[in-house]
Design brief:
By secondary structure, the chain is an alpha/beta fold. The chain is built from 14 helices and 17 strands. The structure holds L-homoserine. The site of L-homoserine (HSE) has 11 residues, from α7. L-homoserine binds next to α7.
Length: 411
């Protein structure tokens, strides 16, 4: 029997307790031992829970219990999760977390402590919810040099964009629905402003390229400025709008990484990933493109990835799994202004398209019915993003109103 503790009994934590209970026999068959929930840490009361006798409000009950070999951290946020996880690792306990904020902010340090203490720090659920991606990348694709990773990494924003695209739903209504369904973060700003997707692409980039990529070194844009008009222009250009996290290894050895909404061509494998589903494309030199697809948010999908890590920790109580990256300082990342892209631009004003053509050179005009007479949209050729912003300023100086700009994804 292996004793485990679960820190947090929210959406994911209660899912972990549920799967460990309902799938007890299945897990026993896989592990050959029982996984026993000894403590559940939460400040709230759960008098109706069948696990009512397991609850504690005191972290000391876990850290001082030598029988607890694996601790699950599903509290979310950095405080007190960071301190608790560090203490658990230093006490020789393996830790499993779904907390992408924690891994993106402190992954290198926590992996180093785990290495030092010869225990495991696993975080499959931190990216892609129920989709296996950390383990496939660190094990199954290990023979590859990874060139690029691009993905729809946030279920909430994908749900919102799907509702806008398919049902013409307004942004706020779609967000409310995603919150009601339990996909959104406690503070949904992290979803809609792209920070959640940023944390996830940082984790994948750190894993793929061996150096920690911190979120504040990654240019991040969310979806709050996307309008139904943009959605219709995307449709007219045979694309859909998706929030994409993307990292690419350049010939220089540096990486080009960003999070932003993009026009995704309908023929791309990422275009049909809808609702709360996530999709992640990993481009390896031997495999070519491998695409991972599944539910990126929600109680049981995410808990399933957590429980798989718990089983893995239980199987490796005396050995460390090789999952590691070194610390990084951002020197391997190019400025986002140097990142090359084509961009969709929606404009308003007299002779706006003529002025755009003079400034941008060759442009592709997007035609759409039922637009105001002085409104137009076009797509630029590919150029460094810094050049795009300079030309946008020049356009504004010509008296043209720029209503939106969205990158065209090369996906
Ligand atoms: N808020 C996150 C999402 C939850 O919507 O994807 C899963 O990480």
């Amino acid at each position: 029997m292996v004793s485990v503790a679960i820190m947090g009994h929210g959406v994911v934590g209660s899912g972990v307790a549920e799967i460990l209970t309902t799938h007890k026999q299945k897990l026993f068959a896989s592990l050959g031992e029982e996984i026993y929930i000894k403590h559940i840490l939460d400040l709230r009361e759960f008098p109706d829970s069948p696990l009512v006798d397991k609850f504690t409000k005191d972290f000391n009950d876990i850290i001082n219990d030598r029988e607890v070999r694996v601790v699950v951290e599903v509290m979310g946020g950095l405080n007190p999760a960071y301190d608790f996880v560090k203490q658990c690792l230093k006490a020789g306990k393996s830790v499993v977390t779904s907390n992408k904020e924690l891994v993106a902010a402190h992954g290198a340090e926590l992996l180093a402590i785990a290495k030092e203490e010869n225990v495991n720090f696993l975080f499959e659920a931190s990216v892609g919810g129920g989709i296996p991606i950390i383990r496939p990348m660190s094990q199954c694709l290990v023979a590859n040099i990874v060139y690029e990773i691009a993905g729809i990494l946030n279920g909430t924003t994908n749900f919102i964009l799907t509702k806008m695209i398919e049902d013409g739903m307004q942004f706020e209504d779609a967000l409310k629905l995603a919150q009601d369904l339990g996909f959104a973060e406690r503070n949904p700003a992290a979803d809609i402003e792209g920070h959640d997707a940023c944390r996830k692409i940082c984790i994948l980039a750190s894993l793929a390229f061996g150096k920690h990529v911190y979120p504040d070194s990654v240019h991040t844009e969310g979806i709050t400025n996307i309008t139904l008009e943009d959605v219709k222009y995307a449709e007219a250009f045979n694309c859909v709008i998706k929030l994409i996290g993307k990292v690419k290894r350049l010939d220089s050895g540096k990486i080009d990484i960003l999070v932003a909404p993009m026009f995704v061509p309908k023929m791309s494998q990422l275009a049909n990933i809808d609702n709360e589903f996530n999709g992640i494309m990993v481009r390896g030199d031997c495999t070519g493109d491998v695409v991972f697809y599944g539910k990126g948010a929600g109680k049981l999908p995410t808990a399933s990835a957590v429980v798989a890590d718990v089983v893995d920790c239980c199987k490796h109580l005396k050995t460390r799994k090789f999952l590691f990256w070194a610390d990084g300082n951002g020197s391997n990342i190019i400025p986002y202004t140097e990142s090359k892209t084509a961009v969709y631009v929606r404009i308003k004003g007299e002779n706006a398209l003529d002025k755009a053509e003079k400034i941008f050179g060759a442009i592709s005009v997007i035609k759409r019915e039922d637009v105001p007479a002085d409104e137009a949209a076009f797509v630029t050729t590919e150029m460094p993003y810094g050049d795009i912003t300079e030309k946008i300023e020049a356009l504004k100086n010509e008296g043209v109103e720029v209503l939106s700009t969205i990158r065209i994804g090369d996906l």
